[in-house]
Structures are given as C-alpha cells and as structure tokens.
Amino acid sequence: MEVSGRKEWDDKHSMSKQGRQRIVLCQPCECDGNTIEADAFCETCNEFLCTPCLKAHRKLAISKNHVIKSKNEMPISREKQKDPCTELCSVHPTEIIKFYCEDHNSVGCGDCIVLSHKTCSVKLVNNVSDNYDACEEFGQTKKKLESLLRRISSYQGIIVDTIKAADEMREKIMKDIHIFRQEINEYLDNAEADLLKRIDQLTSKQVSQLGHIQKEFESMATEMKECQDKINKNTNTINQLFVIAKLAHEKIDACQISTEELASKCEIETFDLVKSQELGKLVTDKLSIGVINEEKRMLHTLNKISLTDVQTTLLEKLNVLSAVRDRTASLISGMAIISYDEILLVDCSNDCLKLITVEKFMITFTLNTNGKPWDITAISSGLFAVTVFTTGEILFINTSNGISKSHSIKVRKDCRGIDYRNGVLVVSFGNPGCVQLLDIKGNIMKELDIDKHCSYPHYIAFCYDDNKSFIVSSSCNNALFEFGPDWKLKDKIKSNDIKYPEQLVVTHDGAVIVCCGDISDRLIMITPHTREVLSITVEGIKRPMCMAISEDQTRMFISDASDRNIKVFGIK
Q1: CB distance 416 to 429 below 8 Å
Q2: Half-sphere exposure of residue 29, counting CA atoms within 13 Å on the CB side?
Q3: CA-to-CA distance for 515 and 513, rounded, in angstroms?
Q4: Sign for the pseudo-dihedral over CA of 402, 406, 412, 413
Q5: Which helix (H) or strand (E) holds 143?
Q6: Do residues 488 and 480 touch, judged by C-beta distance below 8 A?
C-alpha cells in the first residue's frame, strides 16, 4: 500500500541513457520503514536526506550550519568511516564524541558543540584525524605522558624513602631519650612518657598524611596508565586514537597541575631532642627533660645523593651544531633539563635556544633570541627564564609544546647569570659588577654594587633553599664570592684548583659545584660548611663551561667549550 506523497522504490538499478544509475534513499525515512528518494546529502553527518527531512535538518540548531550537497552534487553512496569512534563524552555520557573544535583544540559530542562551541570552527573528527598518529602533537602527548608517569613514580619512591627516614628518626630520638633518661632519677618517667607520646603523634600524623598523598599519586598513575594503554591499543584506529589522545592531553595537563600541587605538600617535620641545661632543677622545679624540635623539609630534598664521593661514567656525546641555521660553532653557556629525554640549551654563539632530544641525538626545536643569550633558570615545569646580555632583557620561554617565547622584561644590558627561587629572580651584571633581586614582573627589589669585590660576575646562584644569600663566580678573579642574607660579603673562596670559574650549581645540601674553564677532566666542589675545595672526576672534558644534573641525580650534562659538544655522564 502506498503512502500519500511517497513512492515505493526497490533497491535495484534502473536503466538510463547514460547506463545503470543507483537510486539513493533518504536514510532517516528508511530507518522508519519508509523508502523515499534522497534529494540532498549532509557531508557533516554523512547522511542522505529527502526534502522534508532536509528542511527539518536545517531548522535544528545543532545541524543548521552543516555542509549540504544538492542532488546533482551528492555522492551515489554513503562513505564508510575507516574506524568509527566509540568514545563516549564525559559531559554527556550517552553521546559519542564526533566533533573537533579548531578554536579550542578540543573534541566533544553534538551536545557539547551546541552548548559551548556555537560560534567556533567545528569539524568532524573523521575529516581531521588522517595521519594524526604521525603528527608532532601526538608525539609530544606521548612524551609528556611518559615523562609524567616517570615523575609520579619518582615521587612515590621519595615518599617510601621518607617514611623510612621518619621511622629511623623516631628510633634515633627514642634511643636518645632512653639514654638521657638513665642519667637522671626516677622522677623523669612521666616526662619521658610525654615526650614519647609526642613523637608518636608527630610520626603517625606525618605517615598518615604521606600515605594519603601516596594514594593520590597511585590514583593519578593508574589514570595515566589507562590513557597510555588506550593509546597503545588504538594505534590502528585513527579516529579513536585522535579522540583518546585529545582527551589524554587534557587529563595530562590536569594531572601535571595536581602532581605539582601534591608534591608541594610533601613535607616532613624533622625533630630531635634538645637536652635541658638545668638537669639539677628537674626534681625541685619539675622541669621537662627536653622538647621536640620540629622542622619542615620538602620530601624531594631527603633522598638526593651526595656528590662528594660519586663516580661518573661518560655515556655519550651530543653534537649540538645545527647544519641548517648555525653560522658558527656552538658555545653552550647555559642549559636546563625539561624532562628525562629533553634538555634546553643556550647557544650564545648562534643567538638561539635549542631543544635537544637525548635518546635520538636530535635538535627538535630552535628559537632565535634576537641577541646573545647567556644563562637560563627554571621558573616552573614548563617555563624558563633566559638572560640576553646584548639587548638587556630576560626572555620567558614556554616549553609545553616545543619552545616558544612567552614574554620578556627589560633589564640592564650585560645581564649574565640568573637563578630563581620562591618567586624571586637574582641576576648578575657585568661591567660594572652588580647584582639585582627582581620579582617575576621585573621590578627591582634590591640592588648591590659588587664591583669592588669581584670583576665581571658571569654566573650566580641562590645558596641553599632560601632566596636571600647568593654566590657568584668571577673568571677574572679566579674566585667565588658568597654574600649572606644581609648582602654583605660573607666569604671569598679562592684556590689553586679554581681557575676561570664559569657556571655554578648549588646542591640540595648547600654544596657548590663549579665548572672551571681552565681545568680538564674534573669539576670543582665547595663543601657546604667547611668550604673545602674538592674534585669530581669527569674524564673527557677539556674546558667545562656549564652543567645540569637530572632530578633523580643519575645523569649529568656538561658543556665542553673545547669541542662545542654536550657530554652526558652517568652518576653512581
């Protein structure tokens, strides 16, 4: 029986003068059990439509801007998707993700597009996902994922070691308390019990807090591994891979923020016994036998190795010369570690920054600095500050996707060394010798003329974990100069082993490691308290210029000015 206004068609071929021509049916009508010839084709939805369905399609907000082909232009068959995406939207769980917003670089379902991307440039995932698995963005996403998982794993290990250190501290203090208790009379029993109770309270509180943070890291690691597994399982399904990678990109950014936030909470209160000086008054005055001295310390400073007795092994040599753009041999005057496989180099000779992939021995990105750069310091995990001494400015460099300039602040010309700590920059300047303390916006907080003490300070670093005292190197004076919190000269470190000191690094325990340009096969270490001058053997280095040590302190990167290469050493 025919329905009024519609004709029945069988899905066969009819003859025409030009040959056999296939009759295409309206797909929405076909789903309702009716057969009517299609008059248009929606490229966005990959769907054939009759005239009534087309009118309805153009009225809906979600589809009114879709690309429509007329009957004369439409294809003779519906294109099949290579691997249709089945990933569900996290905001609208019943909807499949089918769209990509170019303006926001995000994917979403149809509801997301209507509600949040009405005025954006929106495309079907199927139309933009070709060869995504081979593009640079996907490669960067995988690298970030792997780097973040390694970082989480590192923090997990730190927590385990710190809990062990807390237990060891507890045992040591208990032993001190018991030994001290034996030296006094029986009256101390009650006071001893009070101290032990306090120690247990401190330890259990810290272990509980660290255990909670550990669980948070475990949860993030599980989530990141799930993203990694999804990516690995869908390498042959390009649409699925595109969506999963985009979703993973968002999760990675969120997880990176959470990781740093949790890491900032990883603190431990160290405590020891302060013995009473008035033991004779204990019985008559009922004095306490002592107090527990509490001090907070970041977890990641507890498990780092001491470099005073390390052994180094030359692992590889990195050629940092770019045959495409470099006009002269590279002089690497500064470097910073971005991730386990990436380091950012300051090439003073060629007026640029270079991003090196260690495992592939490749320069993956370069950035012109429009002047001669000198030193670099990390502001955060994805932001670095670089001094450009010929133009007198500090460039802020973003490394979230390659390397790019974020912004800059103007300073005096001949700015050289730079370091950052707790929201404060310290910068050294050449002729005349000067040091400035700046906030992150470039406002001068403090300025010190040090020209009377040292000539032409090349490099500078904050001492210990504060942002008040600092130490500078001067190759002209063959010495290091340490200035205290009051900014008065605290110490001048000079030795026959310190010749043409260049870049210096202050370790977590206050030791200073110095590259001396006129001393081969070793670095110089200044011990934290005695300021004794020691050597670290690095065979194969003729003129050490600058250096960087990996976060887990298993690798050391050293710039050799003699052959203009970076040499990688293993540390144990």
Answers
A1: yes
A2: 23
A3: 7
A4: positive
A5: helix 136-182
A6: no
**13-70 and 312-571 in the same fold:** no
Q: What's the 3-state SS for 455-514?
A: CCCCEEEECCCCCCCEEEEECCCCEEEEECCCCCEEEEEECCCCCCEEEEEECCCCCEEE
Q: What is the architecture, at CATH level 2, of domain 13-70?
A: 2-Layer Sandwich (3.30)
And the tokens for 237? 């399904």
Q: For residue 44, which amino acid is it?
A: T
Per-residue model confidence as pLDDT tens digits over 211-229: 888 888 888 889 889 888 8
What are the DSSP calls for 190-231, one per residue? HHHHHHHHHHHHHHHHHHHHHHHHHHHHHHHHHHHHHHHHHH
Residue with tokens 């012109």: 368
Taking alpha carbons only, the member of 3, 13, 56 closest to residue 34 is 3
The set of residues, in sequence order, having a beta carbon less than 8 Å from that of 445 and lying 6+ positions away, is 424, 437, 438, 439
Q: Where are the domains of the chain?
A: 13-70, 134-301, 312-571
Class of domain 312-571: mainly beta
- Strands 533-537 and 522-526, by their bridges, are antiparallel
H or E element: which one contains 152?
Answer: helix 136-182
> In angstroms, how far is CA 367 from the centroid of its own chain?
19
Give the neighbor-by-neighbor strand order of the sheet with 393-398: 373-380, 383-388, 393-398, 404-410
Backbone dihedral region for residue 76 (phi beyond 0: left; psi -120 to 50: alpha; all else: beta): alpha
Distance CA 366, CA 364 (A): 7
Q: What's the pLDDT tens digit per position in 268-301?
A: 777 777 766 665 666 676 666 667 776 655 554 4
- End-to-end alpha carbon distance in the chain: 87
> Helix or strand or coil: residue 9?
coil
Angle at CA 304, nearest 5°, toward 301 and 308?
A: 120
Convert the pLDDT of each residue in 25-40 to its tens digit.
Answer: 999 898 888 889 999 9
